[in-house]
Amino acid sequence: MKRRPWIWRVGGVALLATLVACALDELQRSNLQSALWSREAGAAGFRVEPGASPAIRFPSHGPYDERLGYRDLPAHIERLREQGFAVTAQARWSPALLGLGEQGLNVPYREKSQAGLTLADCRGEPLLSLRLPQRQYEGFEAVPELLLRTLLFVEDRHLLDDASPHRNPALDPERFAKAALEQALHAVDARPGAAGGSTLATQLEKYRHSPGGRTGSVSEKLRQMLSASRRAYLDGADTLGRRRQIVLDYLNTVPLAARPGSGEVHGLGDGLWAWYGRDFADFNRALAPDAPLPQRALAYKQALSLMLAQRRPSHYLLQRGATLAPLTDSYLRLLAEAGVIAPALRDAALRQPLALLDAAPPLPRLDFTERKAVSALRVELTQLLNLPSAYALDRLDLAVQTSLDARAQALAVRTLVGLSEPAAARAAGLYGFHLLGERDAPQRLRFSLTLYERGRHANLLRVQADNIDQPFDLNQGARLNLGSTAKLRTLISYLEAVAALHGRWAALTDAELAALRPAAPDELSRWAQQYLLAERAAGAPVGLGAMLDAALQRSFSASPAESFYTGGGLHRFENFEHEHDGQRLSVREAFKHSVNLVFIRLLRELVRHQIYGGPDDNARLLADEADPRRALLLAQFADAEGRVFLQGFYRKYRGRPAAEIEARLQQAHAAAARARGGAAALSLLDRAFLARLHPLELWLLEQLQRRPDAKLAELIAASQAERQLAYAWLFKTRHKSAQDQRLADMLEREAFARIHASWRRLGYPFESLTPSYASAIGASGDRPAALAELMGIILNRGERLAPQAIAALHFGSATPYETRLQRQGRAAEPLLDPLVAAAAAQALLEVVRDGTARRLRGALLDEHGEPLALGGKTGTGDHRLRQLGRGGQLQAERVLGRSASFAFTLGERYFGTVMTYAQEPDAAHYHFTSAISVQLLKSLGPSLLTALRSQACQVE
Questions:
Q1: Kind and range of the H or E element at 258?
Q2: Does pTM top 0.90 for this prediction?
Q3: Lowest mean pLDDT among 230-239, 575-584, 741-750
């Protein structure tokens, strides 16, 4: 073969040398990369435009994207849409950015080193601003020179070389070559400890965007390098500014494990606090050149240890530094040898112990009174987004617009907290008749206020405040006896029943109306029939408004002399003011003055109307032994009553030792055997009778002997036949009187279930209603927030506007994932006939005009200085636990709580509730009534309205 001339060989070598030289120059200077990737980065942008975006992608993994909520944003958007929110603006990606996303690269944008939940009030004023990590360097110039030199030596020595302005920080040629060689050797002989070629830029990509924050493969490493390269040229070909930002971001966000009490730890500042208890400002002062050497040495050693710990943070930090201390000491020597630190600093640092804290420093104690509304908002947001905890919520890159009024909120909190001082309570007029006694201590009282403003499409929460320095929320967090506020719910049920009768009968002819035969116990139906007939005879129009007014004029006895059989027992009730005992009062007057016995009788009439006024002939059911419905209802009674007994027996024996269960069962069997002379063939009923036990108690003991770990639900499911057997006696006809009593009890329960359904429709917050006439005066409990919702329905003429505290959410501001959502107005939900609502509203106005809240009359003015139309319902709750002996004698009594509530409307715009509460053991020492809460609103109201009207919030 013909040999090529030597000139060709020399030319080939020269070309190769030139190519190698160009490659090395490119690795050092990155001129070609800078030209290519700066153009690409310039084209890979995004902009925010109105409406949902047709061109946007979301990350699928990465700790940073998970923590800040970008990964889960599609799920959040969908869930928010289901709950009435709509996307009002969203980022649009350029084709170049979409292309990078399709390639699987981390999209280049200026990432945040600090983010978190922010809440703003209705004017945009801040309520909460969380910035995590908390302790950061604000800029590159703030980083101490000693810290900077050390980081570069340990992690990326050439990163800030200014001789190469176009340098690609994602690639350090020396580190990359060394890492490639070691990886090759590792692949050949599986030798451990092959180093990586990570620069600070690729480390940022790794712990932010790689799955689990780790490099799991060569392809993942390449993805990190390519992503970091593109991000490096966001500001153009000159990367020095971006390289400085990389240093800053790394120091501010490097992950440093997690620990109880503080959660995940990110950034040097938070790491020093979490692992060493160091104040960040004090740490930076200690690093100053003129700081005392021992202080400087300790601060430096702690910072160096965290720089090294980031390689395996859980390993180094969660073992109390057992392996971290010698590693840090070895680096101190290495740094001194390289001239990065002075020998004197090395020696002083080597003498300092590296003592990690056993636990994170305690967090500052929160002032729960100041944060009560914020805490409630965070709970609502957590539920709205279906997040596992408030911890996850606080770390989202999320800004929330709320309906709260920060000025009014601050005023309310300041006032309620201040009432713990007797002088402030006295200045507010809280001492006097039916208020606080001269010796009463106000600091043991809890005050709360909830206030809404009626908007166009929603009821906007403006104030939610109390003086309870605990996470507990008195407005929404308990079932409280709120006394006579229950009369408002009873009154509305009564007015609705009248409206229903009007709807059924007003269109009948005179003959059809006269032919109706309401059952004798159904007094309400008989009154309605007589009223309609009388009005027609007089030629008066039979309108619903007039009939409701007539219904409010009906009178009932206020006498406490009668006993009432209700809820399975005989009860007596008292009026608060005994001057009413001998009177007969209209419903309107009784509501105005909160007369208990009138409303006990009114609820009894409603219950009887539910039992006898429907299509079922329940009067015949009780009279006719052959009615087939009797057996069905008795079976239902046996089932329900058996459940109650079984639950009681389960509580009695739950958690008892197996030996005790065995002994009790053997005792029962022995008693039955002695009485019978042998118990082998006896039925459950016979064995229980002879052992003098309830059949279900004996059955439960036998079950627990065989299955000690049986759950109550399992036992109830397995006892269906035994529950019926325990009441077999009840099905025998010779016990008709006992059957009738139990049938009446069942019919009463069903009636209360229907009344409960109507209360639930109007916002009653609980799943059950005590089946007793005492529910008319508060025995079933309520919540201030639920009463506020009812006042809103009445104020809005019978239509329910959704309560709103969260108005808008803004995710990922200034990121490619930016999304803004706003709550959309919902149509009002009609729940009450407008005339029923108007009648209730008029009754509320009369309570303030000359009823139990008359001290508030004329106290609040509108914007023009005229008296504001004020309405409300008072309630005094006295929750006692009484132990009665034989003959009904009182043996012991505990006062569990005392409450004074006032549900109110202020003109046509505002409504809410105010409450005063004392719990045991303090409750027994107070004798205040609802007057104290009315007085509190009278005192606070003028300044509160002024705050609300000051640069008034927008009404949605």
A1: strand 255-259
A2: no
A3: 741-750
